[in-house]
Amino acid sequence: MKREFFYPSADGETDIHAVEWIPEGEVKAVLQISHGMVEYADRYDAFAAWLAQRGWYVTGNDHLGHGKSVTSEEKYGFFHVPDGNACVIRDIHALRERTGKKYPGVPYFMLGHSMGSFLLRQYLLRYGRGLAGAVIMGTGYKGKPILLAGQLLCRLFAAVKGWGYRSRLIDSLGLGGYNRKFEPCESSRAWVTSDLEMREKYEGDPLCSFTFTVNGYFQMFEGMKQIAGRKAALKVPRTLPVLFISGAQDPVGGFGKDVEKVYRMYRDAGIKDVSLKLCENDRHEVLNEQDRQQVYEYIWSWMEERR
């Protein structure tokens, strides 16, 4: 059974929209999903329903500025001033606390995709204890100098246009190069998935077609600074099982190179159970790729072994 609900955001203004997929009978384990940039929790419906059929309770929220956690058109791609990234992290934790009270003692896993993977990596620094495992999907790496430069550009635009401004320049710097390897092609989102049907569905979804505000980019860069560098990985609980999974053809992860870099950072930090899976022919959204059934089964098997 699938159900929608709302709970208060840490921003003090917004009601956060969330979805839960409830299995019939005993709940074997919990998976909380943190979605990516310019999408929403219910895009994971197929995977979540598949897990629910296997006795897993799945839940996820629409982050600030996304999905149904939006109070007006102007709020799409907008987090909060001045601490939007921190609010998003607290909203994720609020959902975990709410769910943990419903299912005490049940193994609790978290999965973050793309921007959600950066959020999950931040989350683990502070709240990683008590989790049965973390699945970091479609992640990447940016150093602090690049992130600081991006924030400076955001500040310049905000000083003139305001934090709600949507800059084509910043958006092109953030996403513009991802499609380069796949050109010539008919779609500017060829990098997302090689599955044409899934890509057309994505491109036709109004909740996946807005442009981030300069506030949204600034806050995302702020969070990414927290996980840049090797010292950040030292704050992750060493007993926490972690799976890195990405498409080998995903430009967000540097076609595997940046994912391998973050994996090595975790491994070198002494995390005892850290795994890496690069799906050979897949692009950014491995859960929406042509081999998604195999991806479902791989993630489920990894979690099952650790619950």
Automatic annotation (TrEMBL):
Signal peptide (residue range): none
Source organism, top-level taxon: Bacteria
Domain Serine aminopeptidase S33: 26-291
Record field: transmembrane: none
Gene3D superfamilies named among the record's database cross-references: alpha/beta hydrolase
The protein, known as: Lysophospholipase
